Inverse folding.
């Protein structure tokens, strides 16, 4: 089994930056990983995903150019660097592994993901 723990969230002013980490208790080798977020009263949405090798990355249009996903399989960790943060980025961010595709895209359905972490709160406010 694999378990995820997200960290790095916090309170930041608009225009600021945060770096989120998603660390697994087991190996992430071969798994595509997705970052998701959910704000109160809103549906969970995919933010970014990365292939098992790290060679392919995808982003939601709302974060493209501001967020960068990366992974270090040796550390069993996936990162999400968030720059130029906006208030609408406020949400609980979580990560999960895609068990059905090593090369997930932004259209991969949620049922393909497992081992959801507890999430880390990101609040962007003045």
């Amino acid at each position: 089994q694999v378990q995820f723990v997200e960290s790095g969230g916090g309170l930041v002013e608009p225009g600021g930056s945060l770096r989120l980490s998603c660390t697994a208790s087991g190996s992430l080798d071969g798994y595509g990983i997705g970052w998701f977020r959910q704000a109160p009263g809103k549906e969970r949405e995919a933010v970014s995903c990365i292939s098992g090798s790290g060679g392919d990355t995808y982003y939601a249009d709302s974060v493209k150019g501001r967020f960068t996903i990366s992974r270090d399989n040796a550390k069993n960790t996936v990162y999400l660097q968030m720059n130029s943060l906006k208030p609408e980025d406020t949400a609980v961010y979580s990560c999960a592994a895609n068990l059905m595709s090593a090369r997930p895209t932004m259209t991969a359905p949620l049922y393909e993901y497992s081992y959801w972490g507890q999430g880390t709160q990101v609040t962007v406010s003045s």
The chain has a mean pLDDT of 93. The two ends are 40 Å apart (CA to CA). The first strand starts at residue 4 and ends at 7.
